[in-house]
Design goal:
Blueprint: H1 5-24, E1 29-31, E2 33-34, E3 37-38, E4 49-54, E5 68-73, E6 84-88, H2 95-101, E7 118-122, H3 141-146, H4 154-169, E8 177-182, H5 184-195, E9 202-206, H6 212-217, E10 236-241, H7 251-260, E11 265-269, H8 278-284, E12 302-306, E13 326-328, E14 332-340, E15 343-350, E16 365-373, E17 385-390, E18 393-398, E19 405-413, E20 417-423, H9 424-427
Parallel strand pairs: 6-7, 6-8, 8-9, 9-10, 10-11
Antiparallel strand pairs: 1-4, 2-3, 4-5, 5-7, 11-13, 12-16, 14-15, 15-20, 16-19, 17-18, 17-20
Length: 428
């Protein structure tokens, strides 16, 4: 045998590996130019702005190569471990015009990130058909058929990988990553966000353009979750929609599915149309910004309030001409006290008139079923027993088929009361 052949084979193997590694490498590249200008046109007072372009990963499943753009806005005071605010634009915008909205108060206010957060703006306008899967209106049978089912589309996989890239590159606190969007971006926020509770701590959707995206991805009725699919605990969800906005149709089904699945939802509505100006919306429903969604952390347990006695009657599907504003779960709050193997302690309460100024009457007492998600130190499996106390009330129960612990019909007041849950396996 020729003694040089092993060396030739080794060289070819290295060359082949290097070629495939380069072919499969994916890293957004910085650029100084944007359509119609330069990165300087995107400047935010006191904050650094970067623009990147990138190609696709094979595993995303795109049928052809494409180039996409993303924008990163730095916090005013840069530091490791800062939170990340992820923005999905509406159908009327692209990533550039979306970021430019942040210069003007009242112009798609949800796009504007807090000064102490990194902000990541993603695009789905540059390539034909590459929407957030927003615009999934009940009347658009073709879109529903094409994008039906629980399998995420290429754009969804791209968005999630871009978020993961930003978390790693900017050393983001992985427990404080938040997603938001307006209109089509609101639909995308629900569809991408609720499915990816292992990434997002909380999400906020401003007049989402349809609830079909999230309904499909989460296997909401009439679908059922396949036995092969494991859904992580979802983020806390904030949604504000208008009954006089046809894009909001179906919210009755969405609210029921979230309630029945024991998913955390703060929901506000009123006849404010397909609006994006927070001040104008607050003239109709002043609750939309009262819940501190950016204070939710992915590594902390949270309660889900279901079947609350204080919820207002939904205007969907039969009373969309209603001029009344309303809410679901708007007045509930909590504080984590301890999350240890021997017990979980969480204080539950209703907000007070002193703590929250609103035109809505604030109840002094409410009854709700309370479920616990993202428990850190106790791993409840289906059927596991637990004991609970809440003030002078106490009882025991078993985790449901998904391992979720629920305490029914708790009476919650404006006075913070400690809920304590103990795993029977630990007690015994």
């Amino acid at each position: 045998m020729n003694k040089t052949l092993p060396f030739v084979f080794a060289f070819l193997a290295i060359l082949s590996f290097s070629f495939h590694a380069a072919e499969n490498a994916w890293e957004p590249a910085p650029t100084t130019t944007i359509k119609g200008g330069t990165v300087q046109d995107l400047a935010v007072e006191g904050r650094k702005v970067e623009v990147f372009t990138h190609g696709v990963k094979p595993e995303w499943g795109y049928k052809a190569p494409q180039t996409d753009t993303l924008i990163v806005v730095h916090p005013k005071n840069e530091r490791k471990g800062a939170p990340l605010y992820v923005v999905l634009h509406s159908a009327g915008h692209d990533v550039i015009s979306c970021e430019k909205c942040t210069k003007q108060i009242g112009n798609h206010d949800i796009y504007r990130s807090p000064d102490d957060h990194y902000a990541l703006y993603l695009d789905c306008r540059a390539n034909m058909g590459d929407w957030w899967w927003g615009g999934m209106h009940l009347g658009d049978a073709n879109l529903i058929k094409r994008n039906a089912g629980g399998e995420p589309m290429p754009v969804e996989k791209r968005a999630i990988d871009c978020v993961k890239w930003a978390i790693a590159k900017y050393e983001i606190d992985p427990n404080r990553v938040y997603l938001c969007g307006n209109s089509m971006g609101g639909s995308g926020t629900l569809g991408l966000g609720v499915r990816n509770g292992d990434i997002f701590a909380a999400i906020k959707a401003n007049v989402p353009a349809g609830i079909e995206h999230v309904s499909q991805r989460m296997f909401f009725p009439p679908q059922t979750v396949p036995e092969t699919v494991k859904l992580p605990d979802p983020p806390v969800v904030i949604d504000y929609s208008a009954q006089n906005d046809n894009w909001s149709n179906g919210h009755d089904r969405f609210v029921k599915a979230m309630n029945d699945r024991k998913y955390a939802l703060y929901f506000y509505w009123g006849p404010f149309g397909h609006a994006n100006n927070s001040a104008n919306i607050e003239k109709v429903n002043d609750l939309i910004n009262t819940f501190d969604w950016l204070g939710v952390k992915k590594n902390e347990a949270y309660p889900v309030f279901a079947n609350a006695s204080t919820n207002d009657k939904l205007p969907w599907p039969d009373d969309k001409a209603s001029k009344t504003a309303g809410q679901v779960n708007a007045f509930f709050r909590w504080k984590n006290v301890s999350d240890a193997p021997e017990k979980l302690e969480m204080a539950l309460n209703l907000v007070t008139a002193e703590a929250m100024k609103t035109t809505f009457p604030i109840p002094k007492e409410a009854t709700a079923d309370v479920s616990l998600r993202r428990i850190q130190s106790q791993a409840f499996k289906p059927g596991d027993g637990f004991k609970w106390t809440f003030g002078s009330a106490h009882g025991e129960g078993k985790a449901d088929a998904t391992g979720v612990v629920t305490i029914p019909r708790l009476k919650i007041s404006s006075e913070a009361t400690m809920l304590t849950v103990r795993d029977c396996k630990i007690i015994n």
